Structure formats: C-alpha cells, structure tokens
From TrEMBL:
It comes from Chloracidobacterium thermophilum (strain B). Catalyzes the first step in hexosamine metabolism, converting fructose-6P into glucosamine-6P using glutamine as a nitrogen source. It catalyses: D-fructose 6-phosphate + L-glutamine = D-glucosamine 6-phosphate + L-glutamate. GO terms for biological process: amino sugar biosynthetic process; carbohydrate metabolic process; fructose 6-phosphate metabolic process; protein N-linked glycosylation; UDP-N-acetylglucosamine metabolic process. GO terms for cellular component: cytosol. The active site is at K368. Residues 42-182, 215-363 form the SIS domain. The keyword Plastid does not apply. The gene is glmS. It is found in: Cytoplasm. Its EC number is 2.6.1.16. This is Glutamine--fructose-6-phosphate aminotransferase [isomerizing]. Homodimer.
Length: 373
C-alpha cells in the first residue's frame, strides 16, 4: 500500500510530479493559449467584474493561499486578502457581491473553512473551492470548484495536496487574467509552457532525496530552526517550518527574509540552522533584486555564525560560495519556484523526523482533517 516506501509521507512526496500532471490535465491548451476551469455557477460577466478576492483557509492550505495571493495579484492584477478561516468566521468581514471568496481545503471538511464558505454564501458572495476530495462538503457547497487531482493523501502532513493547490491557484490566476484581459493568449501560452515543464523539474528536485537524508544527520539534534524567504517563497519558508514542527516536534519558525533585522536576528548563534529559500530567476529584474537582498541576509546570518542551508537554483555559485550547505532545484520562473522549493523542505523535515524516531505519518496531537473545533 505504501508502494515500497517506508511511510505514506515519503510516497506522497514522490507522487508530486504525477499529482501536478493530473491537476493540469485537460485544463490547459498550448495551441490556444488558454486555461479551462471546470464549469461553475458563476456567470462570465461576474468573473469579469470581481474587484477583489478573499481566501480563507487553515494550516498548509493557508500557506498555499499566501502563494496564491502573489500569483493572482501578479497575473490578474486583482487585490487578494488571505485570512485564517478561524479568524474570518468570527469577525465581521468586509464582503460585497464583487468579492470572490475562494476557500482552499485538501479534505473539503475542515470545520472553520466550511463555516467561512457558508458565511460568504450567506452574505451573497460568489464562492469557489480548491479542494482535493470530490464529493466533500466544500466541493458540494461552493459555486465553483477546482479539484486538485493529487489522489488520496493519507499522511497527516500535507505534501502533494499543497503543491497541487499552488498549481490550481496558478490556473485560477490565469483564468482571471484571461477574463479580465490582463493576459493575452501569447502571455498565457508562456505560462502554460512553464506549467507543463513542472512535473519533469519536480522529478529532478526529488533526486536530492539521498543527499538530504545525509544532510539530516548533521541537523536532527537541533532544538530550533529558522526558515527565511521572500516574495512567493516567504510562504514556502512558513510551510517548511510547519512541516518540521509537526512531524519532528522541533521548534521552527518562518519569516520574510527582510524581517530579520526587526527581531529574529537575536536568535542566531552557532547552533541555529537557518534554511534560506532563495531561488533566482535570471534576467527578471524584480526577482534578481529580491535575490540580492536575500543574499545579503545570508551574509548577515553567517556573520552571526548561523548555519545556513540554502535552497538555490542549480548553477547558482554566489549563494553556494556562502552557505554551509546548498540544495539545488531546477531553474523555473520565480512564480513557479515555490512548487519546486518546497520539495527539499518536505524531504528535510521527513528525514529529520525519521532520525528522531517520530511517527511520521501520525504525529502526536494531530488529526488529518479537523472537522470539530
Ligand atoms: C499540515 C496540515 C494541516 C492542514 C489543515 C487544513 O501539514 O496538513 O495544516 O493543511 O488542517 O486542512 P484542509 O486543507 O483539509 O482544510
């Protein structure tokens, strides 16, 4: 049942290329430069008229929402607000009929996320669900659904559902861009090309598995970890920290790299592993700028004797010259780098948890789907 893998989590990490292929299948056309969502109850005119999106979610799905904010704001030029479902539902959120409320939920059964969906419907909003379980409550109740075809996720720690959610959000961003005219067919074509290249690049990222297992020897006794990233990779830093804490019980925190000076720098000493998520898109001015800034953060961590593990684009010699360890991922656009960069973080958390003798698939105090509050 685990297909030769020791744990479901490891199997599901390795299923990611397949999960992404399935999530893209039938939804993108290179010839036409178009994406196709499954039919929804939301009229075309309303798709064009949205002025804002709100995305309530929990946990790892909330991290996907933060990635989605960057994607949708960049590609469709619509403002996006991300909220914890448990905050959204007990507030008095500002919503109107031109706000699209998108819930992201692997299980489709998370109590707070369902409550957020119902609240949005009650207030007259169009709702949309990105969900991995066909027939789940979220999939049945939302006006539009985009199913991630990641297949059943057994491990409590979410992996393949997360990367599939990001790809689904990318499709939603392209769809909104198409409807609103912010993206030409030629532009969509380029994005589709990059999406279709992802599964093979994920396979290449997974080839680091053995090297990361080795690296985990060096770090599995640490009591704290810091994860840093910028832009679309800031939520990846948060996700890397969550994966580590939930399965290895090591305290870990994620921060935007630029926030270090505002407090977290005080934590750095020679015992602290700092994972820096810093892919670069060569030739993209804004991406290069973010990279340069993160590179100077890396130097600051080093100056304070922190132990840097850097996730970098293959061929990057600058970061490699400074970090104690580097884990390469294949080159892609910065927007899609999030999908690749999370893979080594999943593997690092996994191998550290295994070395610590933790119950990887069933971490203490956690349930796969939080249907009660
Ligand atoms: C972490 C994890 C949880 C879930 C969260 C939301 O690995 O799995 O944080 O992401 O409980 O679950 P769904 O997506 O089913 O609503």
């Amino acid at each position: 049942e685990k297909g030769g893998f020791k744990h479901f989590m490891l199997k599901e990490i390795h299923e990611q290329p397949h999960a992404i292929r399935e999530t893209l299948a039938g939804r993108v056309s290179l010839d036409e430069g178009r994406v196709y969502l499954d039919p929804t109850d939301i009229p075309d005119a309303d798709w064009q008229a949205f002025t804002r999106l709100v995305i309530p979610a929990c946990g790892t799905s909330w991290h996907a929402a933060l990635v989605g904010k960057v994607l949708i704001e960049e590609l469709a030029r619509l403002p996006v607000e991300v909220d914890y479902a448990s905050e959204f539902r007990y507030r008095n959120p500002l919503l109107d009929e031109r706000t699209l409320v998108v819930v992201i939920t692997q299980s489709g059964e998370t109590a707070d996320t369902l409550a957020a969906l119902r609240e949005a419907k009650q207030r007259g909003c169009h709702t949309f669900a990105i969900c991995n379980v066909p027939g789940s409550m979220a999939a049945r109740e939302a006006h539009g659904v985009l199913l991630t075809h990641a297949g059943p996720e057994i491990s409590v720690a979410s992996t393949k559902a997360f990367t599939s959610q990001i790809v689904a959000l990318y499709l939603l961003a392209l769809h909104l861009g198409q409807c609103r005219g912010t993206l030409s067919p030629t532009a969509v074509m380029k994005h589709v090309e990059q999406l279709l290249a992802l599964p093979v690049k994920l396979e290449a990222a997974l080839e680091q598995d053995a090297a990361i297992a080795e690296l985990s020897r060096e770090f599995f006794r640490a009591s704290d970890f810091l994860y840093l990233g910028r832009g679309v990779n800031f939520p990846i830093a948060l996700e890397g920290a969550l994966k580590l804490k939930e399965i290895s019980y090591i305290h870990a925190e994620g921060f935007p790299a630029g926030e270090m000076k505002h407090g977290p720098n005080a934590l750095i000493d020679e015992r602290l592993p700092v994972v820096m998520v810093m892919p670069r898109e060569v030739g993209h001015a804004a991406s290069e700028l973010r990279y340069e800034k993160t590179l100077s953060n890396l130097q600051e961590v080093k100056a304070r004797d922190g132990r840097v593990i850097a996730i970098v684009t293959e061929g990057d010699t600058e970061a490699a010259g400074l970090a104690e360890y580097v884990i390469p991922i294949p080159a892609t656009s910065e927007l899609l780098s999030a999908v690749l960069a999370v893979v080594p973080l999943q593997l690092l958390a996994y191998h550290i948890a295994v070395r610590r003798g933790c119950d990887v698939d069933q971490p203490r105090n956690l349930a796969k789907s939080v249907t009660v509050e």
